[in-house]
Amino acid sequence: MSETDLTSYKIDDRPKATATRLLREHVRPYLGKLTVAGLVMVVVAGITAAQAYMIEPIVDKIFILKNPSLLFIVAGIVVVLALVGGIASMIQAVMMEGVGHRIVGDLQERLFSHIIRQDIDALNATHTGRLQSLFLFDLGLVKEGVSTAFTGIIKDGLTAMGLIGVMFFQDWRLALGALIALPLAGFPIQRLSKKIRKAATRMQDITGNYATVISEMSTGIRHIKSYGMETRETSRVRVIIDSRVKLIIKAVLARALTTPLTETLGGIAIAIVIIYGGGRVIEGVSTPGQFFSFLIALIMAYRPLKALAKFNSAVQEGISAASRAFSLLDIKPSIQNAADARTLQLNGGNISFRNVQFQYEEGNPVLQGVSLDIEAGKKTALVGKSG
């Protein structure tokens, strides 16, 4: 690969620095919309916790005490909570998708503006397939990472906290016993996130190679057919596809490993609740309504906790893609105005060149010692040896 290839940059392997830069340069302009979406997510989390708490009066007041006056009241509250929760979920989903796409659009525009101002030799040395992969594939991962991060931290995080709050309200001893296994998942998930980020970085690079080969095939199809190179090109693509598939499987495996981990911990927590909580109901220490409210809250908390365990993979892939974009943005053109360059001042419209020299490549000058005066209002033609 040419040294001037724009996609031959060194990837910044500092995820925290990349995430901070992404937040500062591209997420901060949308903090207002993100704040509104966050407030809506708070409503969703609160309604979810309220739904779990409603199990206690349903079981104790209606089914055990057989109070008919509460039957329609509780049913109406459940319907209202479901309606408001559904509308709030729709609003936050639309807002987060919109913000995510706007962030990616800003980054795409910034990259385009930066690339188009690079030196012509660097642009010629950079294959369009790799740039297409960056714009169409990598930046899509940035969008998924941003949307997943905010949704995971705010919506899933607050939902889990609200449901855990219901658990502690119903029986704090039982809640401690059910949640004691959660810290055990932290270390393996952190290890898996590093593997996912490395696989994502490599996969994005191979995707660029794949796009390059497809582009070369499309533009050079006459050459390929003229020399009977179909088999050679097919073998070349097969190697790239096999490498990409292996990396995809590796990333999928790393993400999938969180499932048996969370499933096992969830099963252990439910088993503890059934044994200890059921015993407390039998002894008369707590009511059946409290037990079932606790159990439903625990089961409902499993989904956001599982999402929090998995959202890290999308965030790592997004950070990896953002690193590639920022590394390209950090490339400076080799041809730049001098530090003491003056702004062009037009005076009469005359144009003068004095001993102009220019070269695209070192040692291969295109212009050398060119001097020329062009008077205003006159036509001047530059004619080469061919006429």
Order of helices and strands: HHHHHHHHHHHHEE
CATH superfamily of the domain at 15-184 and 267-329: ABC transporter type 1, transmembrane domain
Show unreliable segments: none
Helical segment count: 12
CATH topology of the domain at 15-184 and 267-329, what is it called? ABC transporter transmembrane region fold
Termini Cα gap: 37 Å
Strand and helix layout:
Elements: H1 15-27, H2 31-53, H3 55-64, H4 71-116, H5 120-125, H6 128-170, H7 172-179, H8 186-219, H9 221-226, H10 230-256, H11 258-283, H12 288-329, E1 351-361, E2 364-374
Provide an overview of this structure:
The protein has a domain at 15-184 and 267-329: ABC transporter transmembrane region fold (Up-down Bundle). The two termini are 37 Å apart. β1 and β2 form a beta hairpin. 73% of the residues lie in helices and 6% in strands. It is mostly helical and 387 residues long. α1 crosses α12 and α6 (128-170) packs antiparallel against α7. The model has no long low-confidence stretch (mean pLDDT 81).
Brief descriptors of the model:
single chain; 387 residues; mainly alpha; ABC transporter transmembrane region fold; two-stranded antiparallel sheet; 2 strands
